[in-house]
Design goal:
Layout (H helix, E strand, L loop, with lengths): L20 E3 L10 E9 L9 E3 L4 E10 L3 E15 L6 E15 L11 E2 L4 E3 L1 H9 L37 H24 L4
Parallel strand pairs: 6-7
Antiparallel strand pairs: 1-8, 2-4, 3-5, 4-5, 5-6
Length: 202
């Protein structure tokens, strides 16, 4: 999946704040300087997809290495978070811990770099949240399953096959003919009533 165009991130310097923002003024702009960061941030309520989202009240954990290069700062490491959702086959609740590799280039505000794959520093502030969302959400399963071989639900009654693989219905009716079967039953009932009324009494 391709990343969204990031030209909107190339804005004039503005003061940033919040738990996702790192102040990197202490990191020399000479290439080769390093700083390690371990950070726990409360997961946003909207982190995830329509099917699976970050667990309420959980944290996003980041282990990063910040390294200065000619164009800016490269952040490399891992990011992990807990997610909850439903199995797309049987609708059972599921939970998983997603850990994604993380590598992003944050170019200096005054840089002339035109790389659309890079974020841009705002002064000495480095905002991690957009890149963290990219790393975690793009790594989530598109169709989460409670187990790889989940057999799903019975189309007739919704019974989970995992509880009884032999579950079945006798004389199952094709849904396309169900309406006709109802009409036939009603007609048979009317015919029976008519015959009863017309039968001579002794």
């Amino acid at each position: 999946m391709s990343r969204p165009h990031r030209s909107a991130d190339r804005v004039a310097h503005r003061e940033l704040s919040g738990p996702w923002v790192l102040d990197v003024r202490a990191l020399s702009r000479q290439p080769g300087h390093l700083r390690r960061v371990s950070l726990d941030v409360e997961a946003p309520d909207d982190l995830g997809t329509e099917i699976i989202t970050a667990t309420a009240g959980s944290t996003v954990h980041l282990d990063l290495r910040l390294e200065t290069v000619a164009e800016g700062i490269v952040a490399t490491g891992t990011v992990s978070a807990e997610f909850a959702g439903e199995c797309v086959r049987c609708l059972a609740p599921l939970a998983l811990t997603e850990t994604a590799d993380f590598q992003e280039l944050y170019v200096y505000p005054e840089s002339d770099a035109e790389d659309d794959e890079a974020f841009r520093l705002s002064g000495d502030d480095l905002d991690l949240e957009p890149a963290v969302r990219d790393a975690l959400v793009l790594d989530l399963p598109f169709q989460p399953l409670c187990r790889p071989d989940c057999p799903g639900l019975c189309v007739e009654c919704g019974f989970p096959f995992a509880e009884d693989p032999g579950h079945h219905h006798d004389d199952a009716v094709d849904p396309r003919w169900a309406a006709l079967q109802v009409l036939a039953g009603e007609e048979q009932a009317r015919t029976g009533e008519s015959e009863t009324r017309d039968r001579p009494t002794r």
